[in-house]
Amino acid sequence: MTTADSPANPRTVVHLHDSVDRLPGVGPERAVLLARLGIRTLEELLLTSPRRYEDRRHFVPIVQLQLGGSAAVSGTVVAAGTVFFRQRTKRVFEIVLDDGTARLHCRWWNLPFMERLFAVGDRVMAFGKCHSLKPRTMDHPETETLEHGEDPTVHLARIVPVYPLTEGLGQRILRSLVWETLERVTHELVEPSLNIVPVRPTDAPDASIAPVMDLTVALAASTIQWPSRAQAIHDLHFPRTPADADLARKRLALDEFIAFQLNIQSRRQILESRAHPIPCGGDNRMIRPFLASLPFRLTESQTQVLRVIRTDLSGDTPMRRLLQGDVGSGKTVVAACAAIMAIESGWRVALMVPTEILAGQHYASFEHWFRPLNLSVALRTGSEQKSPTTEPVLTIGTHALLQVSAEFERLGLVIIDEQHKFGIAQRETLVRKGHYPHLLVMTATPIPRTLGLTLYGDLDVSTLNQFPTGRGTVRTHVRSPEVLPKVWDFVKRELAKGRQAYVVCPRVLESDNDDVKAVTREFERLQGVLVPYHVGLLHGQLPSDQKESVMKEFRSGDIHVLVATSVIEVGVDVPNATLMVIENAEQFGLAQLHQLRGRIGRGGHDGHCILVSSANNEEAQQRLKILAETRDGFEIAEADLRMRGPGELTGRQQSGLPPFRFGDLINDRGMIELARELVKHHLHQGCPKPSRASRKTELS
Ligand code: ADP
Ligand code: MG
């Protein structure tokens, strides 16, 4: 290796994608520490967000420290020492800082290594909360010691970044590395060339539909003075003002949202350019008798959605539509109508659902609906195959459908129920079974709006916003386990009136480690408690035929009480069930509880959902309270998102949602919309310009 090439040589030319050990001062050991923070390349180093910033333009004079307030001070160490307590089991190390206005005691409990870090005479900056004024004291402040001859522009007299660290890697080291790297690679921080990333080699777009997006032009049309990407990365670390840091974060988030939108929207455009029209609008000859055979009339909302679907199905490009509607809003019958339209036009339909129980239930409903029309239905699940004697026009199944291909000749329409239980990849696999068939995905988990824009950015969205009339109301109660005997009495009174009940427990089997209820045990117990009523057991680990017969008996009313795990969460529809008791309710997510509750109140009788929970922590109680107070699935989903974060809610791994470094799915809705808009314009007109509507919301 020549000297000019040596990583230790500060003049070595480095590039954005070089490994960090090309930097002076980064050897193998430090590289390992950096890797622990996810930093392997210079680019990753520059894209590491500070945890917070510290305003060192103005240190607070120690004499002005406020009780309880956080502040940064700077002073000289005038004393340092350790005091022991309780027969030397506890120790506190203390330094005293003097800045000429007053003295401040900085204390660290049981951290003996701190003693090595300070000496009398050192100049030290401390940041922390002042929790006593007599004497002025901070416990466990963050500190930095000023070194002699140090470049004051990096660590002092400015707003400095404070990074997340790992043991063995100091704040100042990381900060200096970022500083140096910024100086050396700034010229490489160009505007992203947001070319479309092909999903598969064959998806490589034609040049004509994928011009490189000129983000500078696009952003110039925006009302906000966006920094360039280079400026944003600089300001992320060393902003002149707090507002600059904020805008930098937003610009980098916008880049992420744009890249993501470009990916999903271009996929859709590729689809539209490749697909041949599949006319599936139908001619009404079957749908008329079908609607006449229903014991109810469609709601206005259902009719409206169907009109839109018919337009989609008759169009030149394949439908890509998400139908969202709260639990019980009547999505299944909409799916049936859409299926019939395609079938009338001579095409086949596939319907995929996430559980065997739901597949069985849909199979029963569709069979019942389609038999009078002389249409045959097939069922395909992992453990069960039901083939009609004539060629099926509709195949219903679970993931197992993904393995079938025989019935997908002339596949015109794919319907996915409870889409949130599947990933984008599975959706795509099924769609590829045919030649770009129409796609209708349905979900009852109202995706919070921000997530919807990202997760379903490539879909058109329709909402069923009306419930069928003639439904009872469902009241939700939160109860502690002590009152369970009363709850069972209440359940028995309702059973006596002819109603049915679900009892949901979090687990299949009991565990020794906690007292979370298990269905197997509760099933045995309740058979005694609820005499003379019949109790059934349902969970995912039962053999299919057993699951099916239990559901059948519950549907027919032979089983009065169904003790189940959350397998019944999706889709199960037994209108006579009006009671739901959920044990250890704190174990479930809010959206999941809302889904479970959606199993009752489907008929004309009032329902009661009883959430049993012994959790006395504040958060758990608050979550259950939200559920008791609102029935609006959107509100619940937004609350869930806020409380649990987006990762958990979507099951990020399977949702195909990339991890955003800067983008905040909870608060960046305005920017997600802006990105979506910019990309749409870019792809459709090559003329990126945000619309008025999205300008207003840009940073809301
Ligand atoms: P979800 O939207 O949760 O999938 P379902 O499709 O299972 O809801 O419908 C819930 C119940 O409402 C079913 O029993 C269904 O037959 C009934 N239903 C659907 N549409 C109507 C309507 N327009 N009027 C009355 N009942 C309806
Ligand atoms: Mg459903």
What ligand molecules are bound, each kind once? adenosine-5'-diphosphate, magnesium ion
Helix/strand/pairing class, anyone? alpha/beta
CATH topology of the largest domain: Rossmann fold
Identify the CATH homologous superfamily of the largest domain.
P-loop containing nucleotide triphosphate hydrolases
The CATH top-level class label of the largest domain: Alpha Beta
Number of helices: 23
Structure write-up:
By secondary structure, the chain is α/β, with parallel strands linked by helices. It folds into 5 domains: 1-51 and 174-188, no CATH class; 54-162, OB fold (Dihydrolipoamide Acetyltransferase, E2P); 190-274 and 662-700, no CATH class; 287-464, Rossmann fold (3-Layer(aba) Sandwich); 474-650, P-loop containing nucleotide triphosphate hydrolases (Rossmann fold, 3-Layer(aba) Sandwich). 35% of the residues lie in helices and 18% in strands. The chain has 23 helices and 22 strands. The strands form 4 sheets. The chain has an 8-stranded mixed β-sheet, sandwiched between helices. Strands 17-22-21-18-20-19 form a 6-stranded parallel β-sheet, sandwiched between helices. Strands 2-3-4-6-5 form a 5-stranded mixed β-barrel. Helix 7 (242-274) crosses helix 22, helix 11 (356-370) crosses helix 16 (544-556) and helix 13 (449-455) packs parallel to helix 22. The radius of gyration is 31 Å and the shape is globular. The protein starts with 27 loop residues before the first helix and ends with a helix. 41% of the residues are buried. Mean pLDDT is 84; it is low at 1-8, 196-212, 649-655 and 686-700. The structure holds adenosine-5'-diphosphate and magnesium ion. Residues 296, 298-299, 302, 325, 327-333, 444, 468, 571, 573, 575, 602 line the site of adenosine-5'-diphosphate.
